[in-house]
Write a structure and sequence with these properties.
Number of strands: 16
Strand content: 15-25%
CATH superfamily of the largest domain: Dihydrodipicolinate Reductase, domain 2
Number of helices: 9
CATH class of the largest domain: Alpha Beta
Structural class: alpha/beta
Bound molecules: nicotinamide-adenine-dinucleotide
Shape: globular
CATH topology of the largest domain: Dihydrodipicolinate Reductase, domain 2
Distance between the termini: 24 Å
Order of helices and strands: EHEHEHEHEHEHEHEEEEEEEEEHH
Strand order of the largest sheet: 8-11-12-7-13-14-15-16
Radius of gyration: 20 Å
CATH architecture of the largest domain: 2-Layer Sandwich
Length: about 375
């Protein structure tokens, strides 16, 4: 198969792990990186022995098949549309965009031009959640009944070097962290049929305590705690709490799946197989109160950001659907925007999008890459 030639737009915090992984995958040729901040792109390019280009040159280059768009959320839509209009496939960091209109435009242009749209997160393709999906599909917990997700943190201004965007429309705990949970939920149970949400903003301002912007004040312009009730088209019901106002505690589960024959505690969906040996365990409590531990022996255990692009490379070559798809990410955005609207309007909302569950990764897939990431 031809190697998929990738160019990156956005040389910020998350670009390092993408450069590291994409330069390892034999099916991918990472050509260049760009950023509006050109020295930043040049520094990242030097570190990973790739080229740096201006954003315009990268968009125009005929050496690039797919643009990895890892700009900030409010730029995701515009940059992706530029990439598609330049005749390139695109893979966005999450969320796909911050408006439904931009998502619709992206998917329409891609369909007209025969291009692909992909989107993070791809953590559901990791060893942990692929194994969880196998276990649920095997009937281990009987009929899946309910799911609870918890993402509680006190915010990002203590560690992110440039945390302002997290408190603006297009981010907040739902649009920033919700994609991991909602994508994992759709992978397990299929699309969300309706939801009702309540939100609050606990602090109007945030003081940055990380370097280099220590002491600067951020004006908060998006809700910072969400409690959302969900009903899936397949019948499962659930709730998701996402918060930048609170603290988690040691042992707090990220996701608990309740079935008629047992309860499953599953790894953090913002990881490929948990963060350490203990958090990679999938724990079943059966109906008799006994505990059973399942570990995953599937590929992509380490931080495998970019496996969604690897899957796109193979899907394009094989003419099949790719898994971390624009349709899935549009549904996730549609659901997250509905969570804000539901709270504002005090009513249930039904997302208009209903994608299929992505297929499980088969044992014969990615022969050259499945051993590379643990
Ligand atoms: N940092 C993380 O841990 C993390 C983890 C997972 C996903 N993400 C996602 O990755 C994306 C980037 O996050 P980050 O932490 O790297 O942010 P960042 O602020 O560190 O970097 C973003 C970069 O994009 C550049 N940029 C912004 N608009 C641009 C445009 N129109 N054209 C070209 N360049 C542009 C900025 O100059 C900056 O260098 C976000 O969508 C975020 O949600 C981040």
């Amino acid at each position: 198969m031809n190697r998929l030639r990738v160019g990156i737009i956005g040389a910020g915090n998350i670009s390092g792990i993408y450069c590291e992984n994409l330069t390892k995958f034999p099916s991918i040729d990472l050509i260049a990186i760009s950023d509006v901040d050109e020295p930043k792109a040049a520094a990242q390019a030097e570190k990973h022995a790739i080229r740096s280009m201006s954003v315009d040159d990268l968009l125009a280059s005929n050496e690039i098949d797919l643009i990895l768009n890892i700009t900030i959320p409010k730029a995701h839509g515009e940059v992706a549309l530029q990439a598609l209009n330049a005749g390139k496939h695109v893979y966005n960091e999450k969320p796909l965009a911050i408006s439904r209109e931009d998502c619709k435009k992206m998917l329409a242009i891609a369909a007209t031009k025969g291009l692909r749209v992909g989107c993070a997160p791809d953590t559901f393709l990791g060893a942990g959640h692929q194994r969880v999906r196998e276990l649920i599909d095997s009937g281990l917990i009987g009929v899946p009944v309910a799911v609870h997700g918890y993402m509680t943190s006190r915010g990002v201004e203590s560690w992110h070097p440039n945390p302002e965007f997290f408190y603006k429309p297009g981010a907040g705990p739902m649009l920033d962290m919700g994609p991991y949970y909602l994508t994992a939920f759709v992978n397990m149970f299929g699309p969300i049929q309706r939801l009702a949400s309540m939100t609050r903003t606990t602090f109007d301002e945030r003081t940055i305590t990380s370097e280099p912007l220590k002491g600067q004040i951020i004006k908060v312009e998006t809700p910072t705690t969400f409690v959302t009730a969900l009903q899936f088209a397949g019948g499962v019901v659930g709730q998701l709490t996402t918060s930048f106002d609170t603290h988690s505690f040691p042992g707090q589960p990220n996701i608990v799946v309740y079935g008629s024959e047992g309860t499953l505690v599953v790894p953090d969906p913002n990881s490929f197989n948990g963060w350490n040996e203990s958090s990679s365990k999938i724990i079943l409590r059966d109906g008799k109160g006994d505990e059973h531990i399942y570990l995953s022996d599937l590929p992509f255990k380490a931080n495998s950001r970019g496996v969604g692009i690897l899957d796109m490379a193979h899907a394009i070559a094989e003419g099949r659907d790719h898994r971390a798809s624009g349709a899935l990410a549009f549904h996730v955005l549609d659901t997250m925007l509905a969570a804000i609207e539901s709270s504002d309007e005090s009513k249930f909302i039904a997302p208009s999008t209903q994608p299929n569950r992505p297929a499980l990764i088969g044992v014969e897939e990615f022969p050259d890459e499945r051993g590379l990431m643990g």
